[in-house]
Amino acid sequence: QVQLVESGGGLVQAGGSLRLSCAASGNVFTILTMGWYRQAPGKQRESVAAITIGGSTNYAGSVKDRFTISRDNAKNTVYLQMNSLNSEDTAVYYCHVNLGPMGGFRDYWGQGTQVTVSS
Fold first, then answer.
1. Measured between alpha carbons, how far is 100 from 106 in angstroms, rounded to an integer?
2. Alpha helix (H) ranges present in 2-56?
3. Residues 8-38 pLDDT 10s
C-alpha cells in the first residue's frame, strides 16, 4: 500500500505560477514512476508529467516548457512547478505513482488538488 498526500493547489491569475507537492508513504521502496494527471470539467483525465526513479521525465505537449516535474527520492516526494499558467490549465490535479515489479505494478492516486487559473 502507498498513501499519497498532495498540496499546493489554489487560485492564481493567468501568467502566474504554482507548485504542487505530493508526498508518498507506505511501501515507497516499490515506487517506480511518480507523476501528475489532471482532469478538467467535462474532460477525461490526462497525463501531465511523469518522472522515473532514475530521473527520466516526460511531459504532455501542452505543458512542455512551462511545467517542470522533479522528485526527491529521499523524501519520497514529487513536485510539479507550473509557470505561465493559463485558463486551459484549470483542473483537478492528481498525483499518481506506479509501483514496479516488486509492487505488482499497481497504481495509486492522490485525492486531487484544485488548480484554478483566472483570466
1. 8
2. none
3. 999 999 999 999 999 999 988 889 999 999 9
Q: Are 34 and 22 in contact (CB under 8 A)?
A: yes
Residues 33-52 have pLDDT tens digits of: 999 999 999 999 999 999 99
- Report in angstroms the alpha-carbon separations of 39 from 42, 53, 74, 90, 114: 8, 25, 29, 9, 10
Distance CA 77, CA 70 (A): 9
Residue 67's Cβ-count burial label (10 Å; 0-12, 13-18, 19+) is buried
Distances (CA, A) of 33 to 78, 85, 99: 10, 25, 7
C-alpha grid cell for residue 88? 486551459
Q: How many residues does the chain have?
A: 119
Nearest to 47 by CA among 34, 56, 38, 58: 38
- Give φ, ψ of 34 to 5 degrees: -120, 145
Which residue spans within 8-90 are E strands per DSSP?
A: 10-13, 18-26, 31-39, 46-52, 57-59, 67-72, 77-82
